[in-house]
Amino acid sequence: MLQSMTGFGSATVENAKIAVTVEIKSLNSKFFDIYCRIPRTYSEREIEIRNILTAELERGKVEFTMNVVPKDESGAATVVNRPLIKAYFKDLKATANELGFEPSPTELLRMASMMPNAYNTDSLSEVDAKAEWDLMKSAISQAIAKCKEFRTQEGSNTAAKFEDYIQSIANLLTQVEEQDPKRIPVVRERIEKAVAEWSSSETFDKNRFEQELIYYVEKFDISEEKVRLKNHLEYFVQELKIASNGKKLNFIAQEIGREVNTIGSKANDSVIQRLVVQMKDELEKIKEQTMNIV
C-alpha cells in the first residue's frame, strides 16, 4: 500500500512513577525534517529519538512532542531551585524599580524560572533511567504505529484517486486513437500539395524530396507515442500495486507528460489537441498528489 506523508499518532504509557505522552504529526515535505519538543531533562535522548523517527517515517515534515508527568513526588526527577529563583526574582524587581516602573510579579516569576540553573535535576540510578527510557520508547513506538496507520489510510485514498486519473487519461487516449485515422486525409492533402510544388520546380532534387517526405511522415505520425503512453499508464498502475514511492511515481508521471506533449505537438488536429489539454489536466492532479507520497 502507498503511504501518504500526512499522518498523526499519539500514545500515553505510564508506570507507577511517571506518565509519558507522545504525539507525532507529519506533513508533506521534499526532504525529511524533524522538529522535537521534549522536556529539557531528557534532551540527551533527542538524537536517539530522531534516529527512531528517521528509520520508521522515512520522509516528510515531522513534529514530535513528548511530555513526561510525574505521578507522585518520588517520580519527579526535576525540582525547582527555589533559593536561586528567589534571588533572580529580587534582582529583576530591583532592576525594574531602578528603571522607574513597577513590574508584574507573575511576569517576574516567569522570567526568573527561565534563568540558568532554575531547576535541579536529580540523577537517577542506572536501573531507573533504563526503565524510564524503555517507557518512552514504548510510547514512541505506539505513536509511530498509529501515525503509520493514518499514513496508510491516506495513501489508500490517494491510490484510488491515482487510478481514477490514470483511467481518465487512458479513456482520452482511446479517443485520440479513434480520431487519429480521421486526420489522415488532411495530412495526405498537405503532403500531396507539397510534393506537387517540389516536383514541378526546376530545381527538383530527388534525394531532397525523399528526405522531406520522411520528415513529414515522422512529423505527423504519433503511433509510437500512443504505444509508449499506454505502456507508461500501465506501468504507473503496476507501481501502485507494489507500494511504490512518491519519487518514482513522479518520474513515471514526467514520462507520461512527455508523450502527451509530443502527441499534442505532432497531431496537427484540433480535436486531438483538445483531448491532450484534458490529459494534461489529469496529469497535473497526479503530479500534485505524488508530492504527498512517502
User: What is the first-to-last residue Cα distance?
Assistant: 11 Å
Please mark out the parts with pLDDT under 50 across 5 or more consecutive residues, or reply none: none
Radius of gyration, in angstroms, nearest whole number = 33 Å
**Structural class designation:** alpha+beta
Characterization of this structure:
With 294 residues, the protein is an alpha+beta fold. Helix 1 (46-57) runs parallel beside helix 4 and helix 4 crosses helix 5 (206-220). Helix 1 (46-57) links the parallel strand 3 and strand 4 (60-70). The N and C termini lie close together (11 Å). The mean pLDDT is 88. It has a four-stranded mixed sheet. A two-stranded antiparallel sheet has the order 5-6. It has eight helices and six strands.
Structure keywords:
single chain, 294 residues, alpha+beta, 4-stranded mixed β-sheet, two-stranded antiparallel sheet, 6 strands, 64% helix
List the helices and strands and how they pair.
Elements lengths: L6 E8 L3 E10 L4 E6 L8 H12 L2 E11 L7 E3 L1 H17 L6 H9 L5 E3 L4 H74 L6 H15 L2 H19 L4 H22 L2 H21 L4
Parallel strand pairs: 3-4
Antiparallel strand pairs: 1-2, 2-4, 5-6
Kindly summarize this structure in a few lines.
The protein is an alpha+beta fold. The chain has 8 helices and 6 strands.
